Amino acid sequence: MTNNQRDQEQVLRSSGVNVLKCMRCGKCSATCPSYDEMEYHPHQFVYMVEKGQIDRLMASPSLFKCLSCYACIERCPRGVEPAKLVEAVRLLVIRQQGQNHLKPGDIPALLDEDLPQQAIVTALRKYSK
Amino acid sequence: MQRIGVFVCWCGSNIAGTVDVKAVSEALGREPGVVYSINYQYMCSEAGQNLVKDAIRDQKLTGVVICSCSPRMHEATFRKAAASAGLNPYMVEIANIREQCSWIHKDMATATEKAIILGRAAIAKVQLNAPLTAGESPVTKRALVIGGGIAGIQTALDVAEAGFEVDIVEKEPTIGGKMTQLDKTFPTLDCAACILTPKMVDCAQNENITIFSYSEVQEVKGFVGNFRVKIKKKARYVDETKCTGCGLCTEKCPQKKVPNAFNLGLDTRRAIYIPFAQAVPKVATIDPDYCNMLKNGKCGVCAKVCTAGAINYQQQDEIIEREYGAIVVATGYNPIKLDNFEEYAYSQSPDVVTSLEFERLTNAAGPTSGTLLRPSDGKHPHTIVFVQCVGSRDTSGCGKPYCSKICCMYTAKHAMLTREKYPDTDVYVFYIDVRTPGKNFDEFYRRAVEEYGVHYIKGMVGKVTPRADGKLSVQASDLISNEQLHIDADLVVLAAAIEPDKTARSLGTMLTASMDTNDFFTEAHPKLRPVESPTAGIFLSGVCQGPKDIPETVSQAGAAAAKVIGLLAKNKLTCNPCVAHSDEWMCNGCSSCEKVCPYGAITYLDKEFRMPDRTVAIRRVASVNEAVCQGCGACTVACPSGAMDLKGFSNRQIMAEVDAICKE
Amino acid sequence: MVFSYYPGCTLKNKAQRLDQCARRSAQVLGIELQELPEWQCCGGAYSMAQDEIASKLAAVRALNGAKELGQDLVTLCSACHNVLKQANHDMAENEDFSRNANNYMKLAEPYRGETKVIHYLELLRDQVGFEELAKRVKNPLTGKKIGAYYGCLLLRPGKVMQMDNPENPKILEDFIRALGAQPVVYASRNECCGGYVTLEDRALASKKSGAVLEDAAQMGADLLVTACPLCLYNLTKNAPTGHQLPVVYFTELLAQALGVDTAREDGR
């Protein structure tokens, strides 16, 4: 089993998404607020997970551009839930040793006086293990 | 003791490939009562049938067991063969060793063993079979068509043409259905009204056709050949026989603010109205929700202006009872409500419209007299975005899981006609797949692209944002160029999924006609009996059976008419003799069977019984109307005293089969 | 009416106004909000991964705490609301997760999603009633044109939040109307403000917030209300030049309309 196959299994298990339900309509990418910031767009996440191209997704900065706004999940006509795949691939990355995307030490530099705590804990949840 | 013959079919290699047919015929030949057992390559072929016929005569068989395919396939074939050789056809039993054995097993040893067991069960049953004779019932030579759209109209015309009476029951004030609201029809672009209204007039003028408009079916009793139907004729507060359709009342009525349903609420009409100029019957109807006279007794203008004296505020709903030999369901469809698709802002902007509304906006008889204008400001739209599959192919729970089938073509039509009439307009069509199978359909769609310059974009719209400047910001994906697009549109047209009319579900229950999970009526066989319901005497026409366009609907309507004519042409119908039968001595009169019978075939009678002590007692007992009973067997299960039994499938016969299967 | 109340960490810190105005208004409306003892931070975001267990337990603890008190759980911050409802949904519907979480927690009685989670807005709509609320208003906000900003977490995923039509909500508009002001409907009210990504990519947050502000202003809003501290931050701090609109918490308007003392508790 290649790394990609192993990772594909993990992504499918962790996300609980059935990528085969996708009918390639692209409504997820039509709705995504971070589209322009992403190298791989939501519909590509679905297709690339299906094709087992997990390594390319793992190396992409797109992982950290998803706003977790649930719009793609809400509007997908097939119930595919692309954001869950982004989350699963991101976890695959940050669960590796030393791969936390945001380290607690980085935080003080990012703070400003009005930044709500909510933003910091959310970012830590999303970007660190 | 029966003399039973066993005939094991190879079905080419379908059975013989997995089942050792020789071993089966040998093993079954040793069963008690079996005097003859053979196997043959194709038992259903003429040669195979002759084997059966010859054996019946030569071996003096009293019972026959055919080990072959499903009885749905060839039971009738072999019963007919037996009858021609002088054997009662109900002395034939089929053991299904194909669908239930060879096709689902791989190992020959176990499949052969199972085939022998199935054969043995059939033999055990035949031992207890008794000859049955089918009864006959008369046929009422009149058909009922429920729904007066193009499907119902075509069926009615075809049946009437053959010389039979037809009634059309239509819930709206006029027949014509959805097609009256369309502008042009694909792929030939002829005007919908021009080809439909002559047919509507034909219906009205045909002496075999009676139209019950503004009416609904309320109750259906009876069975194939003998339906009794109650039709509710809703009060329209206008005497149909007096109204001349002059329309004066619809001009003078002071209540002007009624949303015009015919134009889908894009304009208004009066409280008394004729839906459109070519309505059939051309008779006014008062809308009781808006009429001041009916609501608070103050007005009466229409009665004053009506020179024919047709207005009758006291009119009541009327119930009409009629008898029919056949019923055709042609209840049609509606676009779905778009509450679950508010990302397209349908309820937030008047310039987001459905495709059916777009038809009205381009129709010469529509609210804009056929000039395409935005509902919000009455200006010409210069950029139009069409969105396909709004609620179709949707398994998220918001829409419908099926393809609505007609949207790709009507959107191509809309896009093409817009570009033809207004070449300065940019037209975008967002699609998931373009589905255009059909004669001249794909050519039509390609013409929209290649000759008319419609921009077809593979992708979906994600969000429509109505803006203060009147534009609609459309955010969409272009999957081929891998871009997110932002288009400033003036008009957005949504191809809403279609669904069966809301009345279909209750009608299905009334007719005991089965439906699928989407409320489309089910066919008796999806390929070979596509216009018949599994319930005898009920036929299907148009979208009530599944999404379809006009040419397809008309073909199916004609097919349904042919089936109706075939039925009505008969003077007598042969009944299924495998019906329920009540042992009156055992019946305790509890009514359990009556309650579960889906066909209303069971009634209770007070009957005189001569008791063993020579007294006469009156007892309440179940009685089965054999012409109505469909032999489903529900009553036999419900009966607590074991009085109900099914002829040809008696409890004894079924237990004998079970015993034969379980026997070591 | 007594409810358990889960304020969340931001409401104890940067978003005290959201909290204080809500509590004081509740008092006036005859609702007792009892702060859940020893609540922990919900984590701000609910992991969408099925195999994340530990990070979701704080929410489950809060839910179970309310269950033990036999009270419905009221929450206010959009993020807390989202996390609590999603955790509750998973505890009720996702057998694997529910079993794992219960194994971790070793509760006297396993938790299976019994607690009803109510957003403060739902409390106003379903318990108080907007008609009743309108009657209690002392200082109607007559003439104000207010845009509701829902953001993402209040409404989505719609099947789990079960709060309102996620694509065309009206709960905040009805609330605004109850206070005597005029709601301004604009389509971007449920589009994302940029969320936590502001931490890394302020430009993205600015772009997203700018689009929302632009839409709201074009449609005629002179003020926005929100239930989310992060939304408020993005819409104010990350507003592109020339797109400033005042943004306040909806509870601030509520308190003002009810004539509740709205002085800051910290005196600032």
What do these coordinates show?
The complex is a heterotrimer of chains A (129), B (664) and C (268). By secondary structure, chain A is mainly alpha-helical. Helices cover 51% and strands 0% of the residues of chain A. Chain A has helices at 3-15, 27-31, 42-51, 54-58, 71-75, 82-94, 107-110, 117-127. In chain A, α1 (3-15) packs across α6 and α3 (42-51) packs across α6. Chain A is globular, with a radius of gyration of 15 Å. The model of chain B has no long low-confidence stretch (mean pLDDT 96). In chain B, α5 (108-128) packs antiparallel against α18, α6 crosses α7 and α12 runs parallel beside α13 (441-450). Chain B is α/β, with parallel strands linked by helices. By secondary structure, chain C is an alpha/beta fold. In chain C, 43% of the residues lie in helices and 11% in strands. Chain C is built from 11 helices and 8 strands. Chain C has a 4-stranded parallel β-sheet with strand order 2-1-3-4, sandwiched between helices. A 4-stranded parallel β-sheet of chain C has the order 6-5-7-8, with helices on both faces. In chain C, β1 (2-6), α1 and β2 form a beta-alpha-beta unit. In chain C, α1 (16-28) packs parallel to α11, α2 (57-69) packs across α3 and α5 (120-128) packs across α6. The model of chain C has no long low-confidence stretch (mean pLDDT 95). Chains in contact: A-B, A-C, B-C. Chain A binds chain C through residues 13-16, 33-34, 37, 64-65, 67-71, 73-74, 81, 83-84, 87-88, 91, 102, 110, 112, 114-123, 125-126, and chain C through 8-10, 13-15, 41, 43-45, 47-52, 55, 77, 79, 152-153, 156-158, 166-167, 191-192, 194-201, 204, 208, 228-230, 232-233, 236-237.
Blueprint (SSEs and pairs):
The complex is a heterotrimer of chains A (129), B (664) and C (268).
Chain A: H1 3-15, H2 27-31, H3 42-51, H4 54-58, H5 71-75, H6 82-94, H7 107-110, H8 117-127
Helix pairs in contact in A: 1-6, 3-6
Chain B: E1 4-9, H1 21-29, E2 34-40, H2 46-58, E3 63-68, H3 71-84, E4 92-96, H4 98-102, H5 108-128, E5 136-138, E6 142-146, H6 150-161, E7 165-169, E8 184-185, E9 190-191, H7 192-205, E10 209-212, E11 215-223, E12 226-233, H8 248-252, E13 258-259, E14 268-269, E15 272-273, E16 285-286, H9 292-296, H10 301-305, E17 318-324, E18 326-329, E19 333-335, E20 352-354, H11 355-362, E21 383-390, H12 407-421, E22 426-431, H13 441-450, E23 455-458, E24 461-466, E25 472-478, E26 483-489, E27 491-496, E28 498-500, H14 503-511, E29 538-540, H15 550-568, E30 572-574, E31 580-582, H16 592-596, E32 602-610, E33 616-624, H17 634-638, E34 644-646, H18 651-662
Parallel strand pairs in B: 1-2, 1-3, 3-4, 6-7, 6-18, 7-10, 18-29, 20-27, 21-22, 21-27, 22-23
Antiparallel strand pairs in B: 5-30, 8-9, 11-12, 12-17, 13-14, 15-16, 19-28, 24-25, 25-26, 31-34, 32-33
Chain C: E1 2-6, H1 16-28, E2 32-35, H2 57-69, E3 73-75, H3 78-93, H4 95-105, E4 117-119, H5 120-128, H6 130-136, E5 145-148, H7 158-161, H8 171-178, E6 182-184, H9 202-218, E7 223-226, H10 229-237, E8 247-249, H11 250-258
Parallel strand pairs in C: 1-2, 1-3, 3-4, 5-6, 5-7, 7-8
Helix pairs in contact in C: 1-11, 2-3, 3-4, 5-6, 6-8, 9-10
